[in-house]
Amino acid sequence: MAKKPKLTHRQQRQVAANRNKRLKNGPSEEAVNSADLIEGRVVGRFGKHADVEVRLADNIDIFRCHIRRTIDSVVCGDDVLISKDQHTKATLNGVIEIVKDRRSMLSRPDYYDGVKPVAANIDQIIIVSAVLPTVSLNIIDRYLVACEHINIHPVIVMNKVELLNTEDEKQLHESLEIYRQLGYSIIFTSCKTGQGLDDLNRHLSEKTNIFVGQSGVGKSSLINQILPDADEVVGDISETSGLGQHTTTSAKLLHLPCGGDLIDSPGVREFGLWHLTPEEVTWGFIEFRQYIGGCKFRDCKHLNDPGCMIREAAEKGEISQIRLDSYHKILATMEEQRPSYIPSN
Ligand SMILES: Nc1nc2c(ncn2[C@@H]2O[C@H](COP(=O)(O)OP(=O)(O)OP(=O)(O)O)[C@@H](O)[C@H]2O)c(=O)[nH]1
Ligand SMILES: [Zn+2]
């Protein structure tokens, strides 16, 4: 039997509001009692529908659901309460009545709305880079800042590692040492030799993950390795999204053999910094945090300003000069990376 979900006051009000609205819309609509609601999780999202996975004991059902008009947004990874659709004979149709509070949220630029939610309740973001042609620490920093901003734990993956000779690999380890010291996990992988895949699986297990990274670094290849049935298209441009214009970006949540989950879609993969303020970028460099507020001038740019605590910390070797340079590079290029239809801060 399904466990009866306990509703918060806010959710009870939402159910009542939905019920009143339906009653106003005509007597044919059935009133929904909170006791009739079933807990589930959104595993697919397309057009006006969502697929909701409902687990009852050992049984897993997927309900194809409409979304109550009173609900702002439903995205992959959402925990929801659904009612069975009374109008269709098919048993596995439903209506999403309530979206539970989200513990995290990923958004992307949208032509119409500015920011559009694409996935919820993600525990971990896997930042994939390829060791060749070059490793850009600045790009890794951009992703780290984006992760820190939405408070989701990042893991750094260096893929195609079999292409490096021993000397280059040693150098790469050295240049990534600052990230280890900051507490970030780094995994070296190769889809060609299988190196690091066990390590990757261990990190993914029991968490809801997403993979991000530039085109060609091997995200699809890695997903195929950890989830052989995923049928990710390798070396192909998955979607000509043009950042949101008229695309019906469908996202899906997949269960991994290692026990974790993976949410994937082109919309999920492209997330960036364009909507952050300079202060939020500063906050995203976690080692800067302890110095924030200590600078002499309130509007300190942490560049050549007198009495800048962050610059002084870099001079004393307390923080990495490479990271500080990377920070300034991010600020300098943020405006040009912002899609023109998104208003600046
Ligand atoms: N040598 C080597 N090549 C790899 C490895 N992983 C992936 N590749 C190759 O890199 C190319 C790009 O891989 P994809 O998996 O499509 O990269 P992606 O990150 O999904 O790219 P987009 O879909 O454009 O975002 C393909 O030709 C893969 O065969 C690896 O570990 N070593
Ligand atoms: Zn400063």
Task: Please write out the topology.
Blueprint: H1 9-24, E1 38-46, E2 49-56, E3 59-67, E4 79-84, E5 93-99, E6 105-110, E7 114-120, E8 124-130, H2 137-149, E9 153-159, H3 166-175, H4 177-181, E10 185-188, H5 197-204, E11 208-212, H6 219-226, E12 251-255, E13 261-264, H7 266-269, H8 278-284, H9 309-315, H10 321-337
Parallel strand pairs: 3-5, 8-9, 8-11, 9-10, 11-13
Antiparallel strand pairs: 1-2, 1-4, 1-12, 2-3, 4-5, 6-7, 12-13
Helix pairs in contact: 2-8, 2-10
The chain binds guanosine-5'-triphosphate (GTP) and zinc ion.
Sheet with the most strands, sense and barrel status = 5 strands, mixed, barrel
The kinds of small molecule bound in this structure are: guanosine-5'-triphosphate, zinc ion
In N-to-C order, the SSE pattern is HEEEEEEEEHEHHEHEHEEHHHH
User: What is the CATH topology descriptor of the largest domain?
Assistant: Rossmann fold
Counting copies of identical and different chains, the oligomeric state is single chain
**Unreliable segments (pLDDT under 50, ≥5 consecutive)?**
23-31, 233-249
Strand content: 15-25%
CATH superfamily of the largest domain: P-loop containing nucleotide triphosphate hydrolases
Please give the CATH class of the largest domain: Alpha Beta
- Give the CA-CA distance, first to last residue: 50 Å
Give an overview in words.
The protein is an alpha/beta fold and 345 residues long. The protein has three domains: 9-99, Nucleic acid-binding proteins (OB fold (Dihydrolipoamide Acetyltransferase, E2P)); 106-269, P-loop containing nucleotide triphosphate hydrolases (Rossmann fold, 3-Layer(aba) Sandwich); 278-337, Ribonucleotide Reductase Protein R1, domain 1 (Orthogonal Bundle), CATH 1.10.40. Helices cover 28% and strands 24% of the residues. It is built from ten helices and 13 strands. The chain has a five-stranded mixed beta barrel with strand order 1-2-3-5-4. A two-stranded antiparallel sheet has the order 6-7. Helix 2 (137-149) links the parallel strand 8 (124-130) and strand 9 (153-159). The chain is globular. The structure holds guanosine-5'-triphosphate and zinc ion. Zinc ion binds at residues 295, 300, 302, 305, 308-310. Residues 1-12 have a biased composition (Basic residues). It is found in: Cytoplasm. Its cofactor is Zn(2+).
